[in-house]
Design a protein that fits this description.
- The protein is mainly alpha-helical.
- Helix content is 63%, strand content 0%.
- The model has no long low-confidence stretch (mean pLDDT 80).
């Protein structure tokens, strides 16, 4: 094995130093997308589970006790301040279902409404009707009901 001469050693050394200096930058460039994807996955998962809670709340609101609906509405009102826009929209949808107010999905309008009405608001369940869904509804307008 032949050792490099002094001039060869000086020409090799700076190249190695440049590679060694750039190694931390390479790690940062490799880790940044991975961390960003991890944060994105966590936020999307959190939004999915929150939207799932809102859907369950909306589907079972008629059979849920009033105090539980009140507690859940307060929890969803707290979701209006979340940083994730998917969670804010889901919270606004839950409040829209619970309060029967139509303020859209604008979190600031819902925050203002909850600030003024939240302390005095009480959920009133919808009265159950005896409508038999098996019998067709007869209407003179065929596009609004099942025709004869």
């Amino acid at each position: 094995m032949r050792y490099p001469s002094r001039s060869d050693r000086y020409s090799i050394r700076p190249r190695r130093r440049r590679i060694e200096r750039s190694r931390p930058y390479r790690m940062i460039l490799l880790l940044f997308p991975l961390v960003a994807l991890l944060v994105l996955a966590v936020e999307l998962g959190r939004a999915f589970w929150y939207a799932r809670d809102v859907a369950h709340f909306a589907m079972t609101i008629d059979v849920t006790p009033v105090d539980v609906v009140q507690r859940d509405a307060e929890r969803f009102a707290a979701g209006l301040d979340d940083i994730n826009p998917l969670i804010r929209n889901a919270a606004a949808t839950a409040l829209k279902v619970a309060t029967r107010e139509n303020l859209g999905t604008d979190p600031t309008a819902w925050r203002e409404w909850w600030r003024t009405h939240g302390a005095t608001w009480r959920y009133i369940p919808v009265a159950v009707t005896n409508l038999d869904w098996e019998t067709p509804v007869v209407s003179p307008h065929p596009y609004r009901a099942i025709p004869k």
